[in-house]
Amino acid sequence: MVKICLIIGAIFILISGILIGAFQAPEQQRVVKDDLFKLGHLNKDQISIWSGVFGIFFISIGGLVYYIK
Predict the structure, then answer these.
(1) 31 to each of 2, 3, 10, 14, 23, how far by Cα in Å?
(2) Which pLDDT score is estimated for 47?
(3) Which keywords fit this entry according to its UniProt record (predicted)?
């Protein structure tokens, strides 16, 4: 249960980081103005925020279950 929650949380945070461009060099962020997934800036920002929230939620649930065990 703990490993599953941590893995799901890490996947959601990875998705969030990819969508906001956190893993790119600053020079590359200017070049990549087109959306990678053609989502539009508003949708991409909303998806990245919510996936980050879900990622933090799942990681905290996994940590809480690990702490209680």
Answers:
(1) 40, 37, 27, 21, 14
(2) 87
(3) Membrane, Transmembrane, Transmembrane helix
Cα 26 from chain centre:
19
Give the mean model confidence (pLDDT) for residues 50-60.
95
Q: What DSSP element (H or E) covers 35? A: none
Q: Which pTM does this prediction carry?
A: 0.76
Residue with tokens 């929650």: 5
Average pLDDT on 10-20 reads: 90
3-state helix, strand and coil shares in percent for the chain, rounded to the nearest 5: 75, 0, 25
In a 10 Å sphere around its CB, with 0-12 CB exposed, 13-18 middle and 19+ buried, how is residue 55 labelled? buried
